[in-house]
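Hello support,

Our group uses your service weekly, and this is the first time we've seen a run hang past the timeout. The protein is AzlD family protein. I'm not sure whether the cause is the sequence or the server load. Input pasted verbatim:
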Amino acid sequence: MISWASFTVVMGMLAATYSTRLIGFFMLRNRTLSPRAAAVMDAAPGCVLIAVIAPYFASGKPHELVALAITILAASRWGMLPTVLVAVASAAILGRWMG
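Update from on-call engineer: The timeout came from a worker crash unrelated to the input. Re-ran successfully.
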């Protein structure tokens, strides 16, 4: 069973994450974005992905570095969803096999 402290932390993170989406929606719902602003919004998911995987660039673990190389290769060929799926699968398989 999950403890109340853990449950409270998870609910707090949920509220913080979802509130940023709501604030963005309410601030931008009646506005037309410029092409530059639209490009920034389109690039945001990629920036988040890079922020998540960036610590692995400094990793000394071989399986993480190989998974990172596979992820970079997938990102150069495919879109966001296939790249994330390849990244998660390669990290899990290589971590189990090499780690």
